[in-house]
Amino acid sequence: MSWGFLRDLLSGVNKYSTGIGRIWVAIVFMFRLLVYVAAAENIWKYEHDEFECNIKQPGCENVCFDHFFPISHIRLWALQLIIVSTPSLLVVFHVAYRENREKHNQKPYRNPGKIDGGLLCTYLISLILKTGFEIVFLVLFYKLYNGFKIPHLVKCDIRPCPNTVDCYISKPTEKMIFLYFLVATSCLCIILNLSELSYLIFKHSIKCNLKKYMKKQQ
Question: What family is this protein classified in (predicted)?
Answer without folding.
Answer: Belongs to the connexin family.
